[in-house]
């Protein structure tokens, strides 16, 4: 039986895909802007 590929970890998720991480780079800021413009309920 193969190992599971997704092992949930809230801290790691936030550190990798969180708002502050997104906001740290130009491309990440663009992602946030795009999602706000699109009207996403959850920006991240």
TrEMBL record:
One GO molecular function term of this record is: structural constituent of ribosome
> Looking at the Swiss-Prot or TrEMBL record, what is one Pfam family this protein matches?
Ribosomal_L34
Q: Which organism is it from?
A: Candidatus Woesebacteria bacterium GW2011_GWA1_39_12
Q: Which family does it belong to?
A: Belongs to the bacterial ribosomal protein bL34 family.
UniProt KW Amino-acid biosynthesis keyword: no
Its Gene Ontology cellular component terms are: ribonucleoprotein complex; ribosome
**InterPro entries on file:** Ribosomal_bL34
Segments of this protein annotated with the region Disordered: 1-27
The protein, known as: Large ribosomal subunit protein bL34
Keyword Protein transport (UniProt): no
Keywords, A to Z, come to: Ribonucleoprotein, Ribosomal protein
Source species, domain of life: Bacteria
Biological process GO terms, please? translation
